[in-house]
Design goal:
four-stranded mixed sheet; alpha/beta; 8 strands; GMP Synthetase, Chain A, domain 3
Length: 227
């Protein structure tokens, strides 16, 4: 029962933050569907740009869109042509002023969304699923992740029966709320069906552990008593 909670939603306000930052009382449904439209347009237009996260912020009649990408050059385009085209398209569809900002992801190997998309792309190219999983785990651990877990489910390797395979290294504390865990679920569309790819990446604790706080305060008290 405890494995069905989304790791990001479980930690909202503690170790993770909202992707849409706005408040509405009356037209909430309309703005929610507007958010979904903006996200679908961006994902459709920038399929190969390594988009990991889309943050939206609203103020009056304006929408600020922040794109977190591992390939900012593709998103920006030659002399900013791609960004301008995307901004005009969003403004035409939404009917509001749209401001597009781009943030580069420095270490894409530890980003769950990009890791999952990389594995899904390899599966569509018929690369061995075990090799793809093992390589992704090793790359993430080498670039500073504290723990990685990858799970594939479907007709792996073209098998007649569906099954699940898991690859894990390090530790991934799913019940620790202060643990900063990046999570993503992606589908690989292969010739023999759809394969689900789930990735968890543990990057460390956002808040200090209670034991560490207690130990630090005890050390400070002892030092003060000695003085």
């Amino acid at each position: 029962m405890g494995r069905k909670v989304n790791p990001i939603g479980f930690r909202l306000g503690v170790a993770s933050d909202w992707e849409s930052n706005w408040f509405a009382e009356r037209n909430y449904t309309e703005l929610l569907h507007e958010d979904l439209l903006i996200r679908s347009i961006i994902q459709g237009e920038l399929t190969r740009a390594g988009i990991s996260r889309i943050e939206l912020e609203r103020a009056a009649n304006k929408v600020d869109v922040t794109l977190f990408t591992s390939k900012p050059g593709i998103v920006i385009g030659k002399q900013g042509a791609n960004v301008d085209r995307l901004r005009k398209l969003l403004e035409r569809k939404v009917g509001k002023k749209v401001n597009v900002k781009i943030e580069e992801i420095k270490v894409p190997e530890t980003d769950a969304r990009l890791v999952a998309e990389g594995i899904a792309e390899q599966l569509t190219r018929r690369v061995s699923y075990r090799r793809a999983m093992k390589h992704s785990v090793q790359q993430a651990m080498r670039r500073g992740a504290k723990g990685v877990k990858i799970r594939l489910a479907g007709r792996l390797g073209g098998a007649d029966m569906r099954r699940e395979v898991k690859e894990m290294e390090g530790r991934v504390p799913l019940h620790t709320i202060r643990a900063e865990i990046d999570y993503a679920a992606v589908h690989a569309h292969t010739t023999y069906g759809r394969i689900g790819v789930k990735v968890w990446v543990y990057k460390g604790d956002r808040l200090p552990a209670r034991d560490e706080v207690t130990e630090a305060s005890l050390t400070a008290d002892l030092a003060n008593a000695g003085d």
